[in-house]
Write a structure and sequence with these properties.
about 700 residues; alpha+beta; Beta-galactosidase, Chain A, domain 5; TIM Barrel; Immunoglobulin-like; 3 domains; 12 helices; binds (2R,3S,4R,5S)-2-(hydroxymethyl)piperidine-3,4,5-triol
């Protein structure tokens, strides 16, 4: 029984020795929790496993056909598992470890449960021990199965997308049978996020019961949501390393540990579910913890590969004047990198572009009062590089098969220790020899021809690759603990709770057009807090600079425009926005986020951030399209103290928190284009935004 702040999660051993879920939902007194269910099965076609909410179902024994968490083959060819509970231990106040053992073979499974009471979250992972003297082959090793209450038909909220177009929120009624979301790409992928939320179809942003969760893994992953008839509709959600083409040989005496999955319950709707994950990520996951990030400048969209010392210096000088705190030089700085056809792998400064190395530029950037950041793509290599010419065998490939390039590059086999060591060595030298405080770690393709792990089991590549990437991160972070890392994979292709143990931020999308970005940011915010959401103001699109700043100020503000082309007026405006952002950034990045009106598919949206102590906040309102004559929606603010008094910039007078939250307010966003129709006058035009600070005032 795990009692959290507002919810309870109970499991128990039934008479047959199976570990089953007893309850997950609103907090209940211990004595009200149902006993661990037993089952005789149903008819001759379904055994007990089919009817029980098993916490970690293993495949093979009995008439169970539900999605299992574990599937294995023993050395003698037996492929049936029969796991029963053999013990449990409590570790301090927060951890519970349940031991399962096969009833014949020396295979042990430790289920770890870690409670996060204040956020109503449970974290689970599994270690599989081979206590025998012959190897065991794992063919599926998920992290957990989650059981929302039976008897309901659930709607699954999930996130889908593609490159340049990530983070679409979808809400689909779960059909009977199995729904599967996954990545087969060796990376998290742009296509789906390893996140889910279940509700009965009636939850909203601030109301309704929601069961939600995510997987902390940056490689191929799978989520299965299975609905069966039993108990008038049972829903099981499993998450873990993808078992597609996966296998893992556990040698005698060895173990395999899965990544963690975290899940929670709330009755505060999708907004509260997001805020629980935001708090968890900031407080328990991120390497630098609860901290806000600097305003950065990134050179990519301004210069592409045309990077050199004078050009970067010119940009840095303007950036510093605007108030930027961190100057990041993107792709194009290293040997032979004049385009995307060459250079990846050769991580020394290009001598034509930087004849005296990087030091003069870094010194200048530092003298301007900014930190210096750099772009790298450690997992990739161009065939046209010294590295590939020296080590053609270091890439992921199969013999006798073409090595398919994407963006003219191949993937280094990060599963191999020598490749990890090489990567650690050059990254360590780069960071050790230069004053670098930020690294953008990019990865611009997914796997093809997934060969190249030559151990006992070739299909371990899928996991060993990600473990290798994590090892490089861990080693480099330990040696350079002050460096802030950003995870990027062509935008949001590697965004998950696993990479956030190593990287502090995520580059959410390569799409920086602000109207598109509003929806992208909203989708991203389902899972991730604003502090990890790097958001640049660029030259993409045609919308006003004010609108672009307002959008990007909803995350960790950056600028990625060609500053050399900005007019004095644009620079003046930018300077003012950056100054304002510095005043509100802690509220935005570290406060509570409320999606007041949705941006995806709507022409008028609003998002509010409130400081944790409810002393201040900021309201962002966006008009992307409202037909005239427009009626402006009423916004009901959130997160205020009922009886405290607050002012809102641009509106007269202080009102109580209760009044702003219950009576609401309107922010009519009008443009200057006037259309008269008879005696009526309309101001038409879209793409206007407002940023309004909220302040608690005495009285
Ligand atoms: C993809 C990233 O998402 C961009 O921001 C940029 O860094 C390019 N790669 C550079 O090649």
């Amino acid at each position: 029984m795990l009692h959290l702040h507002r919810s309870s999660y109970a499991l128990g051993v039934n008479r047959a020795g199976f570990l089953v879920n007893r309850y997950w939902g609103a907090r209940l007194p211990t004595e009200s929790i149902p006993d661990a269910a037993d089952s005789e099965g149903w008819a001759s076609f379904n055994g007990p496993g089919q009817l029980l909410p098993e916490e970690y179902p293993a495949w093979g024994s009995g008439l169970s056909y539900v999605e299992p968490c574990l599937k294995a083959t023993f050395a003698d060819g037996v492929r049936a598992l029969d796991l029963r509970v053999v013990g449990a231990e409590v570790n301090g106040e927060r951890e519970l470890i349940i031991q399962l053992r096969d009833n014949h073979y020396p295979l042990r499974v430790s289920l770890l449960y870690r409670a996060h009471p204040t956020h109503d979250l449970i974290e689970r992972s599994v270690t599989i021990h081979n206590d025998g003297d012959t190897p065991v082959r794992l063919e599926r090793a998920f992290s957990a199965q989650w059981h929302p209450p039976a008897g309901h038909s659930y709607r699954l909220s999930h996130l889908t997308g593609r490159w340049l177009d990530e983070w679409h929120i979808r809400r689909d009624r779960l059909p009977h049978g199995t729904t599967r979301l996954e990545s087969r790409r060796i990376m998290t992928g742009h296509q789906h996020s390893s996140w889910f939320a279940l509700d009965d179809g009636g939850a909203g942003e601030e109301t309704g019961e929601v069961w939600f969760g995510a997987l902390a893994w940056s490689g191929s992953w799978a989520l299965t949501a299975e609905v069966t008839d039993f108990e008038s509709q049972m829903t099981r959600v499993s998450l873990g390393v993808n078992d597609w083409d996966f296998a893992w040989q556990v040698p005698p005496g060895d173990t395999f540990t899965t990544p963690a999955t975290i899940a929670g319950w709330t009755d505060g709707g999708f907004g509260a579910a997001s805020r629980a994950l935001h708090d968890h990520i900031r407080e328990d996951v991120l390497p630098h913890g609860v901290t806000s990030h600097n305003v950065l400048y990134n050179s990519w969209e301004a210069t592409l590969f045309d990077v050199d010392e004078p050009g970067q210096t010119a940009l840095a000088e303007i950036a510093a004047d605007l108030g930027v705190e961190l100057f990041v030089m993107d792709d194009g700085w290293f040997k032979g990198r004049h385009h995307d056809r060459a250079g990846l792998g050769d991580w020394s400064p290009d001598t034509a572009k930087f004849p005296h190395g990087l030091k003069p530029l870094i010194d200048r950037v530092n003298a301007l009062g900014m930190g210096f950041g750099i772009w790298v793509e450690p997992e990739m290599v161009n065939p046209d590089s010294d590295l590939y010419r020296a080590h053609p065998d270091w890439v992921i490939h199969f013999p006798n098969r073409e090595r398919t390039t994407a963006r003219n590059q191949l993937m280094l086999n990060m599963a191999r220790e020598e490749v990890q060591d090489y990567t650690i060595q050059w990254l360590d030298a780069l960071l050790g020899n230069h004053k670098i405080s930020f690294v953008k770690w990019d990865a611009n393709r997914n796997v093809s021809e997934p060969g190249g792990w030559y151990g006992e089991e070739a299909r371990e590549l899928w996991v060993r690759y990600t473990q290798g990437v994590y090892r490089v991160f861990e080693t480099i972070r330990a040696r350079h603990p002050h460096v802030v890392f950003q995870s990027c994979s062509g935008g949001g292709g590697r965004a998950d709770l696993g990479i956030l143990r190593h990287a502090d931020q995520i580059w959410v999308s390569d799409n920086t057009e602000p109207a598109a970005r509003l929806g992208i940011q909203e989708g991203f915010s389902q899972v991730f807090p604003a502090s990890v959401m790097e958001a640049w103001v660029t030259d993409a699109g045609t919308l006003s600079l004010d609108f672009r700043f307002a959008v990007s100020m909803c995350g960790a503000l950056g600028i990625g425009a060609n500053l050399l082309k900005w007019s004095d007026e644009e620079r003046r405006k930018a300077k003012a926005w950056v100054a304002l952002y510095k005043q509100i950034r802690d509220v935005v990045q570290l406060g509570d986020q409320y999606r007041l009106l949705p941006a995806q598919g709507q022409g008028y949206s609003a998002v509010q951030y409130m400081a944790k102590d409810a002393s201040e906040g900021v309201l962002f309102v966006f008009r992307t399209h409202l037909a005239e004559p427009a009626t402006f929606p009423t916004l009901y603010l959130r997160g205020m103290k009922d009886d405290a008094r607050y002012t809102i910039e641009g509106l007269d007078g202080a009102r109580s928190g209760a009044a702003w939250m219950r009576a609401g307010l309107q922010v009519p966003l009008k443009s200057e284009i006037v259309w008269t129709h008879g005696t009526m006058e309309y101001r038409i035009g879209d793409f206007t935004a407002a940023v309004r600070r909220i302040a608690r005032v005495p009285g």
